[in-house]
From TrEMBL:
Main localization (coarse): cytoplasm
InterPro entries: Aa-tRNA-synt_II, aa-tRNA-synth_II, aa-tRNA-synth_II/BPL/LPL, Asn-tRNA-ligase, Asp/Asn-tRNA-synth_IIb, NA-bd_OB-fold, NA-bd_OB_tRNA
HAMAP family, per the entry: Asn_tRNA_synth (MF_00534)
CDD domains for the chain: AsxRS_core (cd00776), EcAsnRS_like_N (cd04318)
Keyword DNA damage: no
UniProt similarity note: Belongs to the class-II aminoacyl-tRNA synthetase family.
Pfam families in UniProt: tRNA-synt_2, tRNA_anti-codon
PANTHER family from the UniProt entry: ASPARAGINE--TRNA LIGASE, MITOCHONDRIAL-RELATED, ASPARTYL/LYSYL-TRNA SYNTHETASE
Source organism (scientific name): Flaviramulus aquimarinus
GO MF: ligase activity
Name of the protein this chain belongs to: Asparagine--tRNA ligase
Assembly and binders: Homodimer.
């Protein structure tokens, strides 16, 4: 008896007299055709029962969602739609699924409904495809870095520093919140806390990754990241995964080359290896687009968008050029933007980023050399004294997908910038040490993994590309 996955069974060209399969029932039609899925592929295997030979009570238990074990013969299919099917000889129900209460029925469910049933939503074709793609993208990322001589570094999740200086952190403490120890000034005395200091969940592994770049040369992190920003948007999570490469002796143009090559490579990987899932999601998106007004429809299908990224050069544009374009563009002049662009120095909102990518350049864009005061303290100051060597990569439908920079490697300049925004030197003494001992130029970037998964699956809400999303007011499961 050969025990194969659905994926393996469907690729057989020969009749196999004895096979067995375990999986979950997707549908049971005409008291004869059971469609079984085991997660190994988007496709189901059709199992044909001669109901005359089976107990009626047993057949009643073949309901959507039930776990079953089937033994039979793999034969060429009589019907259309599949090459092979299983002629059932023995049927065992492993776990029943009450059709009255099982929430995932073979009909269209809204994404909102499925989010509330996130523990069961991967029983649907759409979510199983998304999560297989998520897994493949994750593998492609590790493969890319491994193939290119990078070391994988595990940066701490609990940290005492605020890497982005944005103050959007979740506190980590085991003090009694009702009755915390107080110091003489009446503030909470964190020296009595578990770590003897104030600690948070990390917002980025970058600062620690820099320490390893300055010894191992090329490193990357891929880990969970936490941000307590109260933005309830379709692109923000409170817990997300970030990939952060960091490379010694690499300048900003080198950083752009790396990011572009990396993005193309991981997208190409799924185009080559996850075709069936992508084709399904491509069709899903086309159907969704049809429900939108003509003006809001995308002119490219999902697979066309992915090919577009792998085949086209990312357009490199300075912040200053971008501001000129935005200031003079139609939606700005006609006051169609929610935030109007009036002057150099304003931060870009996602509506501006998407205008540049989708309407103006119509390709992925790398914006660089941003005003220093809208970017983090660690970015290298340009000779003009007002811009920094930052880069953001903007993707169609997503906006910012990557944020990165060449780092400030000069001790005096870094100290000045930290002082200007009140970051105490004691807090980052080890980071300053890198500039004292063998400093060199270095660069890196951070890719928001879920934003990449959104792009690769064509999903428009970030909550639908991570198994159990954490957002304001929501940490179920
Ligand atoms: O632009 P960010 O804040 O950059 C950093 O954290 C740098 N330390 C990275 C580096 O240079 N090593 O974040 C990087 C990316 C963003 O471009 C975005 O894709 C994603 O992380 N991101 C989020 N994704 C989901 N939910 C959120 N709340 C996110 N915040 C940032
Ligand atoms: Mg950013």
């Amino acid at each position: 008896m050969q025990s194969l996955t659905v994926s393996e069974l469907l690729s057989q060209n020969i009749v196999i007299p004895e096979v067995e399969i375990k999986g979950w029932v997707r549908t049971f039609r005409a008291n004869r055709f059971i469609a079984i899925n085991d997660g190994s592929t988007i496709n189901n295997i059709q199992c044909v029962v001669d109901f005359e030979n089976f107990d009626e009570a047993l057949l009643k238990r073949i309901t959507t969602g039930a776990a079953i074990h089937i033994k039979g013969e793999l034969v060429e299919s009589q019907g259309k739609g599949q090459k092979v099917e299983i002629q059932v000889q023995e049927l065992i129900v492993l776990g029943d699924s009450d059709p009255e209460t099982f929430p995932i029925q073979p009909k269209k469910h809204s994404f909102e409904f499925l989010r509330e049933h996130a523990h069961l939503r991967t029983r649907t074709t759409t979510f199983s495809a998304i999560m297989r793609l998520r897994s493949a993208l994750s593998f492609a990322i590790h493969k890319y870095f491994n193939d290119n001589g990078f070391y994988y570094m595990h940066t701490p999740i609990i940290t005492g520093s605020d890497a982005e200086g944005a103050g959007e952190m979740f506190k980590v403490t085991n003090l009694d919140t009702k009755n915390p120890p107080l110091n003489e000034e009446g503030n909470v005395d964190y020296s009595k806390d578990f770590f003897g200091k104030e600690t948070n969940l990390t917002v980025s592994g970058q600062l620690e990754a820099e320490t390893y770049a300055m010894s191992l040369g090329k490193v990357y992190t891929f880990g969970p990241t936490f941000r307590a920003e109260n933005s309830n948007t379709s692109r923000h999570l409170a817990e997300f995964w970030m990939i952060e490469p960091e490379v010694a002796f690499m300048d900003l143009p080198g950083n752009m080359d790396l990011a572009e090559d990396f993005m193309k490579s991981v997208i190409k990987y799924v185009l080559d290896n996850n075709r069936e899932d992508l084709e399904f999601l491509d069709k899903r998106l086309k159907d969704e687009e049809k429900t939108k007004p003509q003006a809001e429809r995308s002119d490219m299908s999902l697979i066309e968008k992915l090919n577009f990224v792998t085949d086209n050069h990312f357009k490199r544009v300075s912040y200053t050029e971008a501001i000129d374009i935005l200031r003079n563009c139609k939606p700005n002049k006609k006051k169609k933007f929610k935030y109007l662009i009036n002057e150099w120095g304003t931060d870009l909102q996602s509506e501006h980023e998407r205008f540049l990518v989708e309407k103006h350049f119509k390709c992925p864009v790398i914006l660089f050399d941003y005003p220093a005061n809208i970017k983090a303290f660690y970015m290298r100051l340009n000779d003009d004294g007002k811009t920094v060597r930052a880069m953001d990569i903007l993707f169609p439908g997503i906006g910012e997908i990557i944020g990165g920079a060449q780092r400030e490697e000069r001790l005096d300049v870094l100290k000045e910038r930290m002082a200007a925004i009140n970051i105490p030197e004691e807090e980052l003494w080890w980071y300053l040490d890198l500039r004292k001992f063998g400093t060199a130029i270095h660069s890196g970037f951070g890719l928001g993994f879920e934003r990449l998964v959104m792009f690769a699956t064509g999903m428009s809400n970030i909550r639908d590309v991570i198994p159990f999303p954490r957002t304001p007011q929501n940490a179920e499961f």
